[in-house]
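Batch job 17 of 40 flagged for manual review because the log was empty.
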Amino acid sequence: MSKMRIAICDDSIPDAQFTKDIVSSWASSRNFVLDVLVFSSAESFLFHYAQDKDFDLLLLDVEMNRMDGITMARQIRQDNETIQIVFLTGYSDYIAEGYEVAALHYLIKPISPEKLCTVLNRAADRIAQNEMNLILCTCGETIRIPLHEIRYLDVEKNYVTVHAKQDHTVKCPLTELEKRLDERFCRVGRSLVVNLKYIRRVTKTQVFLLDRTILPLPRGAYEALNRSIIQYA
C-alpha cells in the first residue's frame, strides 16, 4: 500500500476543508495511506516545516494574508527540489511565477474535484519516479544515483559527467546512459541531456536551471526543447 504526506495551506477554512475532503476521497479510491496536515497561513506552515520537512505534496493557496503562496514556494525551493507543489488560486495571473518554482499545476478556485484528482494522480506518478535510480560502475565501485537528483549530464571527449548532489564522471557513451533515464530527461544536441524539472527558463542560446546553472543551447534545439517542457508539464 502506497503512502503520501500532503500539506494544505489556505487561509480560508471552508476552502481548506473542501480540498482536504477531495484529497481524502481520492486517497481512498487509490488505496493510499494518507497523512494530511492543514495550515491557515504560510508562516504557520514554514514554522512546522523548519522541524519536519517530510512532505510529498503541497497544495498552496496563492492569495493569503501576509506571506503569499508564491513567496512561500520560493523559500521551500531553496533547499527542496523534489517536493511537488500545486497552486490554488482565484486568478490565472501567476503562471510565470509557478514556472520559476517548478509548480506541478495551477487549479482555479472553486476547485473542481475531477481536476484536483487528475493532478493528484500526476503527483503520485512523479513521487514514484523519485524512487528510480541510475546505477554507475566506476573506479571499482558501484554508485546509485536517484534520478530525481540528476540535473543534467554532459560529455567531454569520451567521458560523461552526471551532475547531481555530487558530480560523477564515467567513461561511457552518453547514448548508453540516456537509455537508463526516463521521460523527464531530454537530449539536447550531441553532448547534453537535461532534467526538464530543473529548467527555470530557456532562451534561443541558453538553458537556465533552478540552481542558477547556465547551459549552452545548441543551434536549432530551442523549439524541440520547448515542446518537451510543455509535454512534460
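Reviewer: the log was empty due to a logging misconfiguration, but the result itself is present. The radius of gyration is 19 Å. Unflagging and moving on to job 18.
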